[in-house]
Design brief:
alpha/beta, six-stranded parallel sheet, 48% helix, 11% strand
Length: 220
């Protein structure tokens, strides 16, 4: 393996959560008067933290987004995830394989809040490979596309970020990984909820792949 550590995004890379989260968001935006199709909602919000898009939502709806609204969004989102979230096909096996190959030097660096990330990890059987190495953009000075969460993960593992591989599926995440100095691998399967290969390459992904089960080979 030519890298010292592998840093994973969570949503859309390890867990198939984007349709669930965006479905809840779409419904709540419609309640405020902003009507979007599922595809439009994904295009606008995928890869981004809702808390960072408050100004956009307020501009489109004319409603002030309060902490109570955000709390209700998280409650409805979490209920949907508990009920329906599943791992990305091949992600659990890929995490297990790379955990063994890297001597445990893998981490999850997500733009989402820690409760959501850990809920999904537990639900999808991924926690054995990432426990103690989960990093949330909500706990950083800046969220993705800033590199802070990837720099924090690399520092915690004691690895130079330039010696890290980052696995991402959105332009926002690829931008963050590149800004950290890492080599970014873009995951772009055919299912909705992931940015297109050309968009990931345009953001700086060194390689784009479509099968998470092939990740160890792709990294090698």
């Amino acid at each position: 393996m030519r890298f010292d550590a592998v840093l994973f995004d969570c949503d859309g890379v390890l867990v198939d959560s984007e349709p669930i989260t965006n479905g809840v968001l779409r419904d709540m935006l419609e309640e405020l008067g902003w009507v979007l199709s599922p595809q439009e909602c994904m295009r606008i919000f995928v890869g981004k933290a809702v808390k960072d898009e408050v100004a956009l939502i307020e501009a489109q709806t004319g409603h002030r987004i309060t902490e109570d609204w955000m709390l209700r969004f998280r409650e409805r989102r979490n209920a949907g995830l508990v009920r329906d979230v599943k791992p990305i096909t091949g992600a659990v096996a890929a995490a297990a394989q790379l955990h063994a190959l890297m001597g445990g030097r893998i981490a999850c660096a997500s733009g989402a809040d820690r409760f959501k990330v850990e809920l999904q990890m537990e639900k999808c059987g991924l926690m054995p490979y990432f426990a103690g190495r989960i990093f949330s953009g909500h706990e950083m000075p800046r969220s993705k596309p800033a590199p802070d969460v990837y720099l924090a993960a690399a520092a915690a593992l004691g690895v130079d970020p330039r010696r890290c591989a980052v696995v991402e599926d959105t332009v926002t995440g690829v931008t963050a990984g590149v800004a950290a100095g890492a080599t970014v691998f873009g995951y772009s399967p055919h299912e909705a909820g992931h940015d297109a290969p050309d968009a990931l390459r345009g953001a700086g992904a060194a390689h784009v792949f479509t099968d998470m089960g092939q990740l160890a080979q792709v990294l090698a």
